[in-house]
Amino acid sequence: MKERSVLWRKKPVLETDMSEVLASLRKLPPEQEAIRRKCFHPSGKFVEFPEEEIEQSIPERFYKIARKYPSNIAVNATDCVLTYAALNAAGNRVARAILNRCEQKEKLVALFLDHGPQAITAILGVLKTGNICVPIDPSLPPARIMSILEESRPSLIVTNESNSIEALRLHQQQTDILNLDTIDPDSSDEELGRGISPNAFSFILYTSGSTGVPKGIVQTHINVLHSIMNYTNYLHLCADDRLTLLYSFAVMGGVQDTFSALLNGASLHPLNLKSDGLSSLATWLAATRATIYHSVPTVFRHFASALIGDEKFPELRIIKLIGETLSHQDVELYKTKFSSHCVVMNCLSSTETGVMTCYFMDKSTILSGSPVPLGYAVDGKELMLLDDNGSNVASNQVGEIAVKSCYLSPGYWQRPDLTTMAFSAASNTGQRVFRTGNLGYMEPDGRLEHHGRKDFLVKLRGHRIETQEIELALLDHPGVREAAVVAYERHAQKNLGAYWVPRRYPPPAVSDLRRFLNGRLPDYMVPSVFLMLKALPLTPNGKLDRGALPEPGEKRPELSTEYTGPTQEIEKSLVSIWEEALDVWPVGIHDNFFELGGHSLTATQLIAQVIQQFQVELPLESLFQSPTVAEMATVITVHKGKMLCEEEMDRILSELESMSDEEARKLIAK
């Protein structure tokens, strides 16, 4: 990758007041500017991150900060506290140990360490050597770890005593292993002084691939620094801030949180949600006096829903939620559970692009429409909405969100095919374009609204459906805390399945949820199956893991009506028809066909079977008017009786025609 030249003159970094900061940033609508002012740190110690500062390596910026704030706490964990001076020295010792095993630059060094200070020190050590950091979360399934190691083929694996046995079991025979616990604490901690290009690769971060195989997304030093620059200047980050680290260090959210703190003199507070759980999050957040909270909406939803009202977070000024669609329910949780000086920030981000948009909300923010806005493009990122052919859509149309910038990932490690598919060059600008796979709508003032994922679009019975719209509608139900909607296929027929987590117990009945959605969505968008779960499955970084959702079963859902079995022969036959058509067992005689998951197509099939088995002529409307087995049995009985009466009348009329008038009068009188 060609190195950029510095086209501006360096200027001294000075403490700046709020008006200068606002003037230097992209102009936002007045209401957004007003909310942003609330999130500036009250200490007034903010130091602007100037644009020319991104033209260096991450370790170079860190070293300047460590010299400026040597006694500030850099990492504050329950079992370890490191000042900037101590962290810098420890990072140098790790770097020298790595160079003893891997002298060349730009080699891949994998980290196999738990969430905590040692992992942060190791990341810093790898970057100081000029090598490429490949962080791997040890809590991932072994098969996934093996897949990452097989594709990346690192020159060195850095681990510690507690993970060394597993690392030895999983690593490839030709890969060397460095145990951090064996490094001599008295070894040299002098600076290495290795020149590292801003455009050199810094990280390879592995995310889920569409084929089930993880894909490595390359990051450069300058791209990470550009993201930190925007984060710093937009949120007024300063040395008095305390940032949470809830994300795994192996994902982009973890990288961003780590260096947003460490490149500004702030303190970083890691918490391992996998081992410590969400139950301790409120107590921990209060104890750390955190000022910046950052997680995916699902984690925030669990955490905030459990708050009872007497928890206090007096210094928390920013809640940043990113990585999933934000619901109105999430914003209401913020409004009811957090202080008035705290601000919520919604963002659109991806590992390939970094943060693309931001939208600030406070307690006076009124949201209209279903999706919470993604907001406005950040500095250095230009948003576009494209159609399937890559052309810009009309101003009032939904299109695929694409971002144009010179601060995008170089692409996918060892996957030029994927890189070519996802990235393209922007003509005559030196920038590149990345298609995000997200659908969006742009307001006239540039505000972006999210309309789901392109790959979550479902074509069902001739209708184009965005499953996110159903999820958001379901989340509006007061008894639903989490929801996910997917398309599934059974017996060559595609249906919608809704997975939901109740807000309280006893939970609402499925019939209640179905009626709720029927009042908000067209019938073809109401899921056939509703499956209640104790919790939705999550990926290691807290996002919904759709691939881990259980297959929709054939079990009868929880309805508002109690199960009643058939007693009459006609009811038993109808129950069999119902169960076969709906693929649900058992069906009670008072169960509503549509509440069991029936729709217009299965209704047509069911009526055809009823007509064939009972030899009655029934219109399709009869199922809508009599949607239970008991009601349908009555309809069939009435029709059968009517048919018998008509047959008897035909017989009598036939006899009358062959009689004399006197005989006919006697028969009628009789």
Overview of this structure, please?
The protein is of the alpha/beta class. The protein is 35% helix and 21% strand. It has three domains: 18-450, ANL, N-terminal domain (Rossmann fold); 461-548, 2-Layer Sandwich (GMP Synthetase, Chain A, domain 3); 569-654, Non-ribosomal Peptide Synthetase Peptidyl Carrier Protein, Chain A (Orthogonal Bundle). It contains 21 helices and 25 strands. The chain has a five-stranded mixed β-sheet. Strands 16, 17, 18, 19 and 20 form a five-stranded antiparallel β-sheet that branches. It has a four-stranded parallel β-sheet with strand order 4-3-5-6, with helices on both faces. Helix 8 (221-235) crosses helix 9. The radius of gyration is 32 Å and the shape is elongated. The relative contact order is 0.07. Residues 1-25 have low confidence and may be disordered.
Short description:
The protein is α/β, with parallel strands linked by helices and 670 residues long. The protein is 35% helix and 21% strand. It folds into three domains: 18-450, ANL, N-terminal domain (Rossmann fold), CATH 3.40.50.12780; 461-548, GMP Synthetase, Chain A, domain 3; 569-654, Orthogonal Bundle (Non-ribosomal Peptide Synthetase Peptidyl Carrier Protein, Chain A).
How much strand content do the residues show? Answer: 15-25%
What is the name of the CATH superfamily of the largest domain? ANL, N-terminal domain
**Major beta sheet summary:** 5 strands, mixed
Radius of gyration: 32 Å
The CATH class of the largest domain is: Alpha Beta
Return the CATH architecture of the largest domain.
3-Layer(aba) Sandwich
Distance between the termini: 106 Å
Give the tally of β-strands: 25
Instruction: Say what the CATH topology of the largest domain is.
Output: Rossmann fold
- What is the percent of helical residues? 25-40%
Structural class: alpha/beta
Number of domains: 3
Task: Give me the number of helical elements.
Answer: 21
What's the overall average pLDDT, rounded?
85
Describe the strand arrangement of the main beta sheet, using strand numbers.
Answer: 11-12-13-14-15
Gross morphology is elongated
Uncertain stretches:
1-25
